[in-house]
């Protein structure tokens, strides 16, 4: 347009994040995007740099507000940081006490809080671009941020932002972790967790999780002991899991991480074999024998000769169910489960001595081949529980699956073991098992535990009731039903009917997938740090355009008009999943996260130059979205969910069609067609 001083102007998106158009991103402009003419990023940076130093409080507040908004743009952020703008932000933050007590430029308390909140937001956005290392921050600035978290009478928005800043800071360096851990005590974080403000509660939980993940094993153990003393589990169980408000995805993820970190404290014992020369471990082993047998023996073992005593001990260890009764330590050399199995047995014998004695004595009096070996069962059961609860596995970046009952109990793993070892004995009796059936019994017990955990019981009491109700005969019934269902659907005519029904049902699944895309989904942008931004994507009702755009936390199902970006379906060329996606290749410099790989997919559009990258919140969403996008691209639906849904629909449809044939066996070959009659003169003559 031949504007004079053209370098002072720039184009900017009018909607959404209002990013500046530069040489590097001009190719991403899509047809239909609305742009506006505005001052260039360097002019705007210069203006705001002056504005935030103004003596007029209104000008300063407006400049800080605009700065918080514009700092999301990488071009502007670069210009502002190049002018040493972060230094000015540090100054405002370091003068924060004056802002919060009305001593600053004679501003009102409300304006002071607002200025500080905008300053912290701008700082967060500028640091998000990774131009400046967190380690370069001044000690005075960091101390000031920590003081806002530690103060009582501070605005909630300022505390939320301060907690977020510390959460991002902790994983970046050991020095910063130690500083934050020392200044922001666990007691202080627990105080924030107990407020009614859900956002403040969430940010406090995020910082707690960041500290736990950055700590060494010994520090983590100390922190978890401290949290146990403060009854954090009971508090979470009562005030967060069972609060009147529904649990958000982010909080569910933090609870999953907290559960995972707690259970992983068992890993060290799980991976340590028993040392037969350790006095402490030998005493634990002997305590099992003494608790079970010495109370009933009238003559103390010390009165016997050494040979007699050794023979008596070996006999008692055999009754306890050790395979190697002369040297039971050999049974505990296998790791995993290692010493964790010994810890569980000792916990069971000390905390439920009656149940323990009953288990041992009951099996001592059975015939040899019918006795349930306590020690062997305990070792195998500990291994099964470690596998089911993923002990020793790294935390997933996206998982949200936690067990509510975990937070209702302090010694969760040990208490769960106590319930399950009694279940082993109960199932052993129900199956009338012998030593040869040992693996079979433990397989049934694994099934009983996993099926009950899938029901997400809210307390261990409820788990105990349900797992005991699911006895061996119930498991057999469930297996029988599943097997019958399988056999019923394998007859040749039924298989032919299945094939005929498939196209119609696949079309039904396609329509469901497209309807799900029209409803849309909230996705996360997973950055190298823990702060996650949200964006929403949905398909237009006419199924011709994908609309997407950034949204705030807590924003559910925004209308299509509020999503500024769009991709015409006609421009979509290809769907990439897992390792093929460009955003997983960018991340592969660090430790590649298996969970993110399983949830990542990208759409390649236009002339195969641009990609829209997704990380699905769950595997279910991943399947629905990849299926829906494949339908739009005219390809086959390839997810495992398609097969599951098709099987469910086929099973229902077949059951309805075969209702009239109940108890009638279906022949494999159709009945023979009778021969044609000798003449066809049996028709009525209409003439």
From TrEMBL:
<dbReference type="Pfam" id="PF16457">
    <property type="entry name" value="PH_12"/>
</dbReference>
<dbReference type="InterPro" id="IPR050868">
    <property type="entry name" value="ELMO_domain-containing"/>
</dbReference>
<dbReference type="GO" id="GO:0048870">
    <property type="term" value="P:cell motility"/>
</dbReference>
<dbReference type="GO" id="GO:0007015">
    <property type="term" value="P:actin filament organization"/>
</dbReference>
<dbReference type="InterPro" id="IPR006816">
    <property type="entry name" value="ELMO_dom"/>
</dbReference>
<dbReference type="InterPro" id="IPR011993">
    <property type="entry name" value="PH-like_dom_sf"/>
</dbReference>
<dbReference type="InterPro" id="IPR001849">
    <property type="entry name" value="PH_domain"/>
</dbReference>
<keyword id="KW-0729">SH3-binding</keyword>
<feature type="domain" description="ELMO">
    <location>
        <begin position="280"/>
        <end position="453"/>
    </location>
</feature>
<dbReference type="GO" id="GO:0017124">
    <property type="term" value="F:SH3 domain binding"/>
</dbReference>
<dbReference type="InterPro" id="IPR016024">
    <property type="entry name" value="ARM-type_fold"/>
</dbReference>
<protein>
    <submittedName>
        <fullName>Engulfment and cell motility protein 3</fullName>
    </submittedName>
</protein>
<dbReference type="GO" id="GO:0006915">
    <property type="term" value="P:apoptotic process"/>
</dbReference>
<dbReference type="InterPro" id="IPR011989">
    <property type="entry name" value="ARM-like"/>
</dbReference>
<comment type="function">
    <text>Involved in cytoskeletal rearrangements required for phagocytosis of apoptotic cells and cell motility. Acts in association with DOCK1 and CRK. Was initially proposed to be required in complex with DOCK1 to activate Rac Rho small GTPases. May enhance the guanine nucleotide exchange factor (GEF) activity of DOCK1.</text>
</comment>
<dbReference type="InterPro" id="IPR024574">
    <property type="entry name" value="ELMO_ARM"/>
</dbReference>
<dbReference type="GO" id="GO:0006909">
    <property type="term" value="P:phagocytosis"/>
</dbReference>
<dbReference type="Pfam" id="PF11841">
    <property type="entry name" value="ELMO_ARM"/>
</dbReference>
<keyword id="KW-0053">Apoptosis</keyword>
<dbReference type="Pfam" id="PF04727">
    <property type="entry name" value="ELMO_CED12"/>
</dbReference>
<keyword id="KW-0581">Phagocytosis</keyword>
């Amino acid at each position: 347009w031949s504007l004079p001083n053209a370098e002072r102007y720039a184009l900017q998106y009018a909607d959404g994040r209002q990013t500046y158009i530069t040489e590097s991103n001009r190719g991403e402009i899509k047809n239909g995007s609305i742009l506006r003419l505005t001052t260039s990023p360097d002019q705007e940076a210069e203006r705001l740099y002056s504005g935030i130093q103004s003596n007029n409080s209104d000008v300063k507040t407006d400049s800080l507000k605009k700065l918080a908004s514009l700092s999301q743009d990488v071009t502007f952020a670069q210009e502002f940081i190049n002018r040493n703008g972060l230094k000015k932000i540090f100054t405002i933050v370091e003068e924060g006490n004056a802002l919060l007590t009305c001593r600053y430029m004679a501003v009102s308390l409300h304006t002071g809080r607002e200025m500080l909140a905008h300053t912290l937001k701008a700082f967060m956005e500028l640091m998000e671009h990774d131009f400046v290392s967190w380690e370069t921050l001044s000690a005075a600035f960091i101390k000031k941020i920590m003081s806002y978290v530690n103060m009582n009478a501070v605005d909630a928005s300022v505390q939320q932002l301060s907690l977020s800043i510390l959460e991002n800071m902790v994983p970046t360096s050991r020095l910063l972790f130690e500083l934050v851990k020392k200044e922001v005590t666990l007691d202080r974080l627990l105080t924030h967790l107990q407020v009614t403000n859900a956002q403040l509660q969430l940010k406090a939980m995020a910082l707690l999780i960041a500290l736990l993940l950055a700590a060494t094993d010994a520090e983590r153990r100390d922190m978890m002991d401290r949290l146990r003393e403060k009854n954090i589990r009971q508090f979470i169980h009562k005030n967060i899991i069972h609060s009147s408000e529904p649990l958000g995805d982010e909080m569910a993820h933090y609870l999953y991480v907290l559960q995972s970190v707690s259970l992983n404290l068992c890993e060290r014992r799980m991976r340590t074999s028993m040392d037969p020369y350790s006095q402490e471990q030998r005493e634990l082993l002997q305590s099992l024998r003494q608790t079970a047998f010495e109370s009933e023996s009238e003559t103390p073992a010390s009165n016997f000769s050494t040979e007699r005593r050794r023979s008596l001990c070996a006999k008692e260890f055999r009754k306890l169910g050790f395979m190697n009764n002369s040297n039971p330590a050999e049974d505990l050399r296998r790791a995993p489960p290692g010493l964790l199995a010994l810890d569980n047995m000792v916990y069971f014998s000390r905390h439920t001595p009656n149940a323990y004695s009953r288990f041992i004595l009951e099996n001592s009096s059975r015939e040899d081949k019918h006795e349930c070996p306590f020690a062997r069962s305990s070792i195998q059961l500990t291994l099964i529980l470690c596998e089911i609860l993923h002990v020793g596995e790294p935390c997933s970046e996206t998982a949200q699956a936690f067990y509510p009952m975990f937070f209702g109990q302090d010694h969760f793993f040990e208490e769960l073991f106590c319930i399950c070892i009694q279940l082993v004995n109960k199932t052993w009796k129900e199956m009338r098992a012998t030593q040869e059936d040992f693996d079979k019994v433990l397989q049934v017990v694994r099934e009983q535990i996993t099926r009950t955990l899938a029901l997400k019981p809210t307390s261990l009491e409820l788990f105990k009731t349900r797992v005991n109700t699911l006895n061996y005969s119930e498991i057999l019934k469930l297996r029988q039903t599943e097997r019958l269902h399988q056999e019923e659907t394998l007859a040749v005519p039924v298989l032919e009917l299945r094939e005929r029904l498939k196209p119609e049902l696949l079309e039904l699944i396609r329509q469901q997938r497209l309807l799900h895309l029209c409803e849309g989904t909230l996705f996360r942008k997973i950055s190298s740090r823990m702060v996650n931004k949200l964006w929403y994507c949905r398909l237009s009702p006419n199924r011709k355009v994908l609309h997407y755009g950034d949204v705030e936390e807590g924003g559910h199902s925004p209308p299509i008009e509020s999503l500024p970006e769009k991709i015409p379906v006609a421009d979509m060329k290809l769907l990439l999943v897992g390792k093929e996606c460009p955003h997983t290749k960018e991340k592969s410099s660090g430790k590649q996260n298996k969970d993110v790989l399983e949830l990542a997919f990208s759409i390649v559009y236009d002339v195969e130059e641009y990609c829209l990258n997704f990380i699905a919140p769950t595997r279910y969403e991943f399947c629905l979205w990849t299926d829906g996008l494949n339908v739009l691209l005219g390809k086959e639906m390839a997810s495992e969910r398609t097969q599951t849904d098709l099987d469910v629909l086929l099973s229902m449809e077949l059951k309805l069609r075969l209702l009239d044939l109940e108890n009638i066996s279906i022949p494999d070959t159709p009945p023979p067609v009778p021969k044609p009659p000798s003449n066809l003169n049996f028709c009525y003559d209409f003439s």
